[in-house]
Design a protein that fits this description.
This protein has one helix spanning 64-76; strands at 2-5, 11-17, 27-36, 39-41, 43-44, 51-52, 54-57, 78-93, 100-111. The chain has 116 residues and is mostly beta strands. It has a single domain (2-111), classed as Nucleoside Triphosphate Pyrophosphohydrolase (Alpha-Beta Complex), CATH 3.90.79.10. Strand 5 (43-44) and strand 6 (51-52) form a beta hairpin. Belongs to the Nudix hydrolase family.
């Protein structure tokens, strides 16, 4: 468990669980920590001015693994990669009920070609 608070006037609690927790809860989103060689890859959130790990909500009929691969491609352009699950987690802000997500690590070998 990680807790932070005070400076921004909010209380934040992050809980990590082993992967078996997925059988007990509804996983609503995925987050992918992405590395390419020695570089960490972050994405700029379209509605905020922050740099974040790739991720997003799981679509209807999609498994968490399918969502992670889709979000990784959509947000970074990664075409060749390996991806492994790390943990199930929840974030609780100011005692509000938290939703559950699944955390992944991806090692990207190749990104899609871009044209300028």
């Amino acid at each position: 468990m990680f807790e932070a608070g005070g400076k921004w006037g909010i209380e934040l609690q992050v809980n990590l669980f082993n992967l078996e927790k997925e059988n007990e809860v509804d996983i609503e989103y995925v987050v992918i920590m992405v590395k390419h060689g020695e570089e960490w890859i972050l994405v700029r959130h379209q509605n905020r001015s922050t740099w974040e790990f790739a991720g997003g909500h799981i679509e209807i009929g999609e498994t968490p693994e399918q969502a992670a691969a889709r979000e990784l491609y959509e947000e970074t352009g990664a075409e060749q990669f390996s991806i492994v699950p790390i943990a199930v987690y929840t974030v609780i802000i100011d005692d509000a009920p938290g939703s559950f997500g699944k955390l992944y690590f991806a090692n990207v070998e190749q990104f899609a070609a871009t044209t300028i």
